[in-house]
């Protein structure tokens, strides 16, 4: 005996989507369930995002050892990332023609020319004194033929090994110094630190300055919503306590 089940086109599409998502090991993208309720279908996704959100911040000495051991080019890139909260792809794509030192503004694009990760064709970002200092140092170095500021790496993938070497060298120097000083090394020093964590750090520092509101920070970092921005703002409790008096 054959049973025929009549489904609306909307439900058929939903069934197909969930089947494909299951086979590929992906989470469904639909925002609503079969009955029109959104909660049941998005709760798992929301919990997953919250669970996977990183809150890695730089320890006081990590920045110093990282910049010292990473080599001049890596150090300049890291310092500029901490000064602008830009993504690695945006940094590697920026050209000297995108820099206006007089107006203290830089324009970020994506490395593949398809716009930023936020979906914008470009993003204009103000340059702090620290960022301008990095640019002044970069101007003294030989320039690449393609006009890019950080031309030593073609794309994000080509930077991964450089970053790993910088972390390893920085941690090795730190352990040697700890042994000489007879002190116990801090747990996790320069471990599990991704370059993208510098964006977390830079964004949090913008908030910790206490002079920018959320919308102003979002205009610098390129986050589309405050919920997205919240993932990057892991403020230190001790810094907030100081503001309480």
Q: How would you sum up this structure, described in words?
A:
With 245 residues, this protein is mostly helical. The protein is built from 11 helices and 3 strands; from the N terminus they run αααααβββαααααα. A 3-stranded antiparallel beta sheet has the order 1-2-3. Helix 3 crosses helix 7, helix 4 (72-84) packs antiparallel against helix 6 (129-139) and helix 4 packs across helix 8. The radius of gyration is 23 Å and the shape is globular. The chain starts with 8 loop residues before the first helix and ends with a helix. The model is unreliable at 1-51 (pLDDT under 50).
Chain-averaged pLDDT? 77
Major beta sheet summary: 3 strands, antiparallel
Based on DSSP secondary structure assignment, what is the total number of beta strands?
3
Widest sheet: strand ordering = 1-2-3
Radius of gyration: 23 Å
State the share of residues found in helices, binned by percent: 40-55%
The number of helical segments is 11
Structural class: mainly alpha
Gross geometry: globular
Low-confidence stretches: 1-51
From the N-terminal CA to the C-terminal CA, the straight-line distance is 78 Å
One letter per element, helices H and strands E, the order comes to HHHHHEEEHHHHHH
Strand content: under 5%
Structure characteristics:
single chain, 245 residues, mainly alpha, 3-stranded antiparallel beta sheet, 3 strands, 52% helix, globular, disordered N terminus
List the topology elements.
Layout lengths: L8 H16 L14 H14 L7 H10 L2 H13 L3 H6 L5 E2 L4 E4 L14 E4 L2 H11 L16 H26 L15 H12 L5 H8 L4 H5 L6 H7 L2
Helix pairs in contact: 3-4, 3-7, 4-6, 4-8
